[in-house]
Structures are given as C-alpha cells and as structure tokens.
Amino acid sequence: MGDDMKPANSSSIRIGIDVGGTFTHAVAIDTRTMQLVDSAKVPTTHRAAEGVAKGIIESLRVLLDKSGVSPDQVGFIAHSTTQATNALLEGDVAPVGILCLGQGLNGAISRQVSDLKRIELSPGKYLKTEHRYVDIAGGVDENKLKSAINALVEAGSGAIAVTQAFSVDNPEAEQTAVELARSMGIFATAGHEVSQLYGFKVRTRTAVINASMLPKMIESADMTESSVRDAGIAAPVMIMRSDGGVMDIDSMRRRPILTMLSGPAAGVAAAMMFLHISDGIFLEVGGTSTDISAIANGRAKIRTAEVGGHRIYMKTLDVRTEGVAGGSLPRLDKAGHDLIAVGPRSAHIADLAYASFESELENPSLQLDIDRVSPIKGDPDDYLAFKIRSGGDNTAEARGYAITPTCASNLLGYVPDGDCALGNSKSIDKAFSTLAAATGKDKKALAERILDLSADKCIPVVEALIKDHKLDREMVTLVGGGGGAAAIVPHVAKRMGMKHSLARDADVISAIGVAMALIRECIERQFVNPSNDDILKVRQEAHAAVEAMGADPSTIEVQVEVDARTNVVRATAFGSTSMEDDADAGEAKQKQLDDQAKLTLAADSMRVQTASVDTVFDGKYFRVYRSLREDKQLLGLITRRLNSLRVMDRAGSIRLQFKNAVAEAGPASETISNLERLLEENADWGDAGKVIPDTMLLAGNRILDFSGLPDVTAVLSLVRAELELVPAQTEVVILLCLS
Fold it and tell me: Are strands 13-19 and 74-79 parallel, antiparallel or unpaired?
C-alpha cells in the first residue's frame, strides 16, 4: 500500500477475514471512504492442529504488518469460518448425550421421540448419540440430573443436549439441567436456546447438532479472540452467520450451529453492503465452483437449512453451488474433435497451470501438445491439458498447462483492464492455437464453446432462483464477484439477454463482505392468532439482542414477518457498530455522480429515456425517481399503466426498485394517517379476503421494510414503534409495492 493510501490515525478501520477453500483473505476497509485500504492472503489451514483459526490469526498478522494499520485504529473485526461446515461434512464432531426431561404420558412420548440414535451429517458420516431420560413429575431433582449427565459422559458423550417438550413455553427445567452440566465442566446446550419454535423432534435434532460442535468451535473461538487481543485490538470479535450477518463471539460460543453453511454468506453480504445490489442474482465465481444467490429489495433470500436431508431450525442464505468456475477444465471427446463439458474438476486440483498466467508460454520455440488427464483417481481421463512437446526448449518448468474459462474469456475480450483475471494474451493464444490445430476448429469458436458449456451449468440455476423467489426478470441484474467473475458472468448475461456488472475488488469480495456485514439476530415465535402485542414483543426482543452485541441503537432496523400458515412471527434485526457514523460521513466524501449522471442511471435501470423520468422526492439521503410506463399483456390486447420507481442513495447506488409502486412524502408526524389512507386506497380483494400491498418507508438515512405483515393494524403498530425516535418534522417517504 502506498503512503497516499494509508489511513489517517483518527480513522476507523473495519477488518474482515474470509476463510476460503484454498486461501484465507484479510482486508482492511476505511470507514471514512468505504474503500479498500489493503489486503493479505495466506493458505487456509484446514489440517493444522489449531484448525482454520491458525490461518485467521496469520492473515491478520500479515495484514497489519503490510498495511501499516495500527491496532487502535481497528473498530470492527469479523471473520468467517468453515470449521462448522467441515465438521459436518467430515463427521468430525463430538458424540452427544441427549438428556430428555418429561413427565406423564407426554414424557413417555418425548422419551421415545428424542432418542435419535445416530444422525446422518453427510453421506457416510454420522453423529453418534447416547440417550437418558429423567422424570421430573415430582420437580427437578439435581441429583437425578447429575447422575444422568455423568452416565452420558461415561458412555462417551463429549457434549450434552438437554431437551423437553414445550420448553419454549417454560424453559426452567431445561435451563437448570444445562447450567448444572456447564458447572460440571461439560459442554451443553438446551433446546430452547437454539429455537423457540414448536416441533419437539426438529428442535431436539437442532440442539444435538449444535452441541456436537461446541468443543471444537469454542476452542477455536477462544484461540482467535486471544490472538486478536494479543495483537492489541480491543474491538469485539464478530463471526459470520449463515444468514449473511455477524454475531459476537459469545453468541457463537452458545450457538455455533449458526455458522454452519456460512461459507457463501460473506460474498452475499458484500453484494448488499458494499455493492448495494437492490435486485439481482449474485454469482461468486472462484476457481472450482460458483455460488449463486438471489437478492430482492436489498435483502438476500433465505431458506430453511437441512442436515443429512433432515430439516433443522436454522435459516441460511439460499445459495446454490455449481461445479464450474474460472479454473474449470474442459473435457475432450474420445475422437479429440470436440469439447463435451467443462468441470467439475479445476486446474489447481489437477496441478495444472492456467495458460492465462504463464509467461513462459510466450517463448516461440516452446511447442505444446494436447494431453488428457484424470485429475483425481477415479475421474474420467478426458480432461484437457497441454504438455511441452518432447525435444523442445525445456528451459521452462516441466509441468502441465490448462485452458480454462478464464483463458477463453480473455481471448474473447470479456475481461476488463485491471481485473484480476486479466491474462497473458500471447500465452493464451498459443494454447488455443494448439487446440485449434488438433481439432480443426477456429480459436474463437473453441473459446465460445468453453464459455457456452460453462454457462449451461449456471443458467438453469439463475432461472430457478428467479422463479422460486418470484423476482421480476426486468429488474434483475447479474452481478459477478470472486476472482473468476469475468470468466463466467459476462457470457451468462449475454446468453440470457440480461444486464450484468462485475464487482470492484472482486478477488477479495468475500473478505470485504465480512468486514461490511451487519450485526444480525433472528427471533422466531409461534402464537395462535398472534396479536399486535405479540408481534411487538418479538420485535423488541430482536432489537435488544443486536443492541446487546454492540449495535448502535440508532442504526438498528427490524424486519418482521408473519407466516399465517404456521402462526410464526419472525423478527430479523440488524445494525452497525457505533463507528458507522464515520462511515455515514465518509459516504458523502466518495466521488459523487452529478445530477445528470444519476438521472441517466435511473433511466437506464428502468429501460426508458431520461426525458420520461421525473424526481418525486429529493432528500438529504435518498432521491426517488419515477417513470410512467405502459405494460402490454396478452399480445397487446391489455395495456396497464405502471408507476415505476427507483430509490437512489446520495452516492448514486440504486437501493430499491419497483416495477409498479406508490410513493408519497410527508412529515413523520403525519406518516401514520397518510399510510393508513394509502393502504386502504390500494388494498386488493381476493379469495383470501383483503390483501394490503407491501410497505416500505424511507425515514432519514434508513430504509424500513414492513413487507409480509398480515393487515393494516399490524403494519401501523410496527411503524409507530420504528418512528418513536424520529423527529416529527423529518421527511418520511411511504412506498407501497403494487402487483
């Protein structure tokens, strides 16, 4: 990093560390400018005695040394971890003792249902459990509990999961048992700690999996926190969650299960927080695989997690992985005339060098021959490689070379200047010329074929995400992140006829996502016909949870959903640390787009001319653009007028987009009455009765989302709660999304 890029002593730095399959990347972000200060990478330490924690610690040390950032400048530090996921995949977890509490007939049923025997974690990998039952009909007897816990430990259990039917209504017995186990020096968790939802067997399964991770995850957490403190950093240590947020290290010590399947979450967090994607499909392209996820209205799409094909009470990002990426190897048919597939094996797995980055191939006397390899024992032997022709100039290192999608995208001009995937054109040309001579095909046609075969794997996934999450295709942009983004995303977009963009600093986008992620908590409760008071209570609990983890109360937002089918009230709260005030000031210092550039950006997003776009709100933090359009349906027989809206922040990023919506601005003191009127005017009636449009508010610098609430009174109740601290004269924009 040059001296002109070094942060001032007074600046606040956010550090993010992402543990990848091959490398652990660390980045420093200056919150005044939200720009990358510096980055570092070290090999991921999967097999070290300390696990991935060793690589996390080493990457932090290298980053601080390289960047010149002093420990007292660091106001936020977070890391992702693959430890929980790897433990599940490899079965490297502690045996768990299940301690079931109950009484009477319910207890007899619970005793049978909670004896899970062994739980399949991944194909061929199982979690072993032991089971004991304690009857608490006469009250909780600590001597009986202690005896049962000792019996479970003697049977080989490395952790205890305490479970009781209906403990979400009365957790006292579970709490007594789990505290007793912990006082005995035994790792333990309780069902009510991991979920507040009914469903005894699923809750028990979730608690057991959580308990199995406790020994190793707590050891890793202690080691990481100790090293951060030894480095002189006083900021709380945060851990990436599977739903795209972060939690403090104490929360992770209680619920390590929340880090499970969190590998792709960091990239999605960057897509939302760093790239400000409003509606899009994010493709994080590595060397071997591509993680694909959906974002709508600035929110990542979520799904219920599964382990071994069984549901657990945990939410994870809906990320779908395909075995094709920047380093994937093409496969050649037996006749040697045509390419038949790309991937799933990649160049680094086969120990082949990318032709893109090999300057020795420029040597005109160096000749290549076609080779075929089987990357891993048992793989087909039709993976394409190149070798140095026998008798040629052997001054170059004797190794194999590969053509990859990265090479193909370079040849076809998809890789922009400055991109980390930009390769050596002469080396690429030599490899493609060799293949062209062997197959009798044109170089560019071969490159197109490689990218077509790669795109064929990604396109169905993108289409499925659009369909499953009911995204408006017209508003979706394909956004590429990861070091291999340029190799895959532009061609996928071309094939699908969709807009695309490539993230800046794409090669460290996941580490940036960790640094930028918000503190997050999700609280779920089940009620029979939940009242407004019930909804507010869950909201307040979620708000309090993220505030307790260090989020500045002024930054906390809570999104509440009510599932009428299951009577589940779900409140998701997220907020930033207090240093985010500096980031807010820093946003204004970023290079600003002028008004005409912003107007053009909004018009391009709506696919209209700038003359047809007007500004309906121009505030300190947001500007709202509108275009009145006509949407023709049924072969043009029906014409519908649409009020398309785009919400843009002051830096020029589109934060929200609506194909058809209502927008009305007014002082906060009048928001409730205005909103009530607008909801009544725009309600629809169907077979299910009255249906209100999804509601969002722009209040100061915050975007408040009230989508998914069942009725007007529920919306108004939550809006009142959110506006309590908003000054009466603050301009608030009401946005109603119409069908």
Answer: parallel
Residue 582 has pLDDT above 70, yes or no: no
Alpha carbon distance 353, 351 (integer Å): 7
Strand, coil or helix: what is 461?
A: helix
Domain extents in the chain = 95-198, 274-517, 518-580, 581-737
Beta strands in 634-707 (DSSP E): 638-649, 654-658, 661-667, 684-686, 689-691, 694-699, 702-705
Residue 9 has what pLDDT? 47
pLDDT over 50 at 588, yes or no: no
pLDDT band at 90 (very low <50, low <70, confident <90, very high): confident
Sign of CA dihedral 529, 533, 536, 541: negative
* CA 104/CA 92 separation, integer angstroms: 37
Give the span between the Cα atoms of 296 and 272, in whole angstroms. 10
Distances (CA, A) of 666 to 663, 671, 689: 10, 7, 30
Which residue do the tokens 């990320």 mark? 319
pLDDT band for 398, please (50, 70, 90 cuts). Answer: low
* Cα–Cα distance measured from residue 225 to residue 241, given in angstroms and rounded to the nearest whole number: 17
How far is it, in rounded angstroms, from Cα 518 to Cα 75?
A: 14
Q: Which fold has domain 518-580?
A: Alpha-Beta Plaits (3.30.70)
Q: What string of H, E and C letters represents the secondary structure of 665-682?
A: EEEHHHHHHHHHHHHHHH
Would you say 484 and 405 are in contact if contact means Cβ atoms under 8 Å apart? yes
> 3-state DSSP helix/strand/coil percent for the chain, to nearest 5?
35, 30, 30
417 phi, psi to nearest 5 deg:
-60, 140
pLDDT band at 46 (very low <50, low <70, confident <90, very high): confident
The CATH number of the structural domain formed by 95-198 is 3.40.1360
C-alpha span between 97 and 20 (Å, rounded): 32
- Identify the architecture of domain 274-517 in CATH: 2-Layer Sandwich (3.30)
Q: Is 210 exposed, middle or buried (0-12, 13-18, 19+ CB in 10 A)?
A: buried
Q: How far apart, in whole angstroms, are the C-alpha atoms of residue 457 and residue 603?
A: 32
Distances in Å between the Cα of 656 and the Cα atoms of 34, 171, 557 are 20, 41, 16
Residue 462 phi, psi (nearest 5): -60, -45
Q: Quick one: pLDDT band at residue 308, thresholds 50, 70, 90?
A: confident
